[in-house]
Amino acid sequence: MHLELSDDHKMIQKTVREFAEKEIKPLAHEIDQSGEFPRESIRKAAELGFTGVYVPEAYGGAGLDHIAQTIVIEEISRVCASTGVILSVCTTLFCDPILRFGTEEQKQTYVTPHARGEKIGCYCLTEPQAGSDAANQKTTAVRKGDCYILNGTKAWVTNGSVADTAIVYAVTDPTKGPKGISAFIVETGFEGFKVAKEEKKMGINATATAEISLQDCKVPAKNLLGEEGIGFKIALRTLDDGRVGIAAQATGIAQGALDEALGYSQERVQFGQPISNFQAVRFMLADMATEIEAARLLLRRAAWMQDNAKRYTVEASVAKLFASEMAQRACHKAVQIHGGYGYSRDYAVERMYRDQRITEIYEGTSEIQRLVIARNLLST
Length: 380
Ligand code: CAA
Hints:
The protein is α+β, with helices and mostly antiparallel strands. Helices cover about 55% and strands about 15% of the residues. The protein is built from ten helices and ten strands. Helix 4 packs antiparallel against helix 6 (about 230-265). The structure holds acetoacetyl-coenzyme A. Acetoacetyl-coenzyme A (CAA) binds near residues 178, 240 and 364.
């Protein structure tokens, strides 16, 4: 593993940074306030291949690697955490499981338009009673002829109210516990698929997070992903990828907060000099920079393992846990350096502070990451 980015990765970083500064940053405040889903930004990101960074070119992607994916998500999240996670979910939680477990027909039909950004995907695992205890699924899927009939409620679905297609997890055999869960590719236009509610949240306001109701939703049997009974494994395998994406998002938010704090501390004059001259402020900036660097290395290690076909469940949890809690500390310091202005909606750090919070919760809380890490420590 190389600690430095390759020249190709540096070029990708430069391209995505320029794009983020020009196209994404100017809209970040507006979409945070309005909650509007950034469709046009996603369309423009798709033109550069950012909706399918590591998806093979044969299925509409850019054919790059997972390190490139972390660079894209970090750089976009540095200026807008909502846009960052929308892109991450489209690739890691939607395209990835189909690439890994889908038939050739499923890949052609579903991965290709989503990787090209023509369609939006989402991932429906969580239910009102199945958050951290994700195996406690109540949504059912009953085979009837050449269809499955799905009934249940899915909660906290990122992209849920705007998605064209969803990966839905449901119980096909209630006698088998987690081994009775199966995964389905469900077009949101299928009869019985309904957006029940759009969530009003503390942050990442433009992500169209929704509750989904499935009422006798008719799904063709050919849309079963993998075999019956392997749905929970697909869900957890997929979250390995998703968690690396959230680690990238958190690292990006923290870097954005540091950028803002660096700029502000050199402009803000108190006691006759810029506050960046004061050791109390310098120490905060130094701690932020140090921790961001550490998170980035953990993130790159997890991405490198993805690219080298190694199991990286623990590394993904380590990266997500550290990056998300680090981002909390970084955003806290950035607001502190801004003083009263940091508490104002006129300053980006106020949004970053709110946006960061979810990175410690979704795609597995910090407690679940610790559980995964500790299990691994104790099993060897
Ligand atoms: N890859 C492949 N297989 C895996 C796996 C992985 N990463 N992790 C586990 N498995 C397999 C196990 O080997 C096991 O298979 P066998 O029974 O054949 O041995 C099976 O899957 C079940 O695994 P566990 O026994 O470890 O499952 P568990 O029920 O004990 O606990 C858990 C798992 C870690 C607590 C898990 O439930 C979990 O991660 N919970 C958090 C859920 C979560 O992250 N939800 C976020 C949803 S997405 C979201 O936030 C919304 C959004 O839109 C962004």
